[in-house]
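Worked problem 6 (solution included).
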Amino acid sequence: MDVHTATQRSRNMAAIRCRDTKPELVVRSIAHRLGYRFRLHRRDLPGTPDLVFPRLRKVILVHGCYWHMHHCRWGRATPKTNAVFWETKRAANVARDRRTIVKLRRLGWHVLVIWECETRDARKTQRRIEGFLSKPSEARIGDGSASSFA
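Solution. The predicted structure is:
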């Protein structure tokens, strides 16, 4: 049984944002501090990536662990009520993420996925972002060598 009423649960779920989340703001701050400039949520690219570095042909996707079923403890959490619905929805998110990454690679973009739990360690996140953005884009279209989906 849910600890919230249907109205309270609806209000909580409606308050969950898809843009300007805390993990996304952490990643944006780090990239900006490193001197990189980027576009946000370009709708002309598959999946509307969170950060787009057009000159580098690179994108960073910031995924929430729960919603995108990361293998950390937050991503493995399962709801007690309406479990089948939420499992189906989250699995569809993961499938959509995979399709999006494939489409971006086919268009010649290099993709880095940053998970919400990773943003808790700012230094580690900064090293990942710095390594990804400073690496020359020499990989061929579609080989996926400059990506991370772990």
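Discussion: The longest strand covers residues 58-63.
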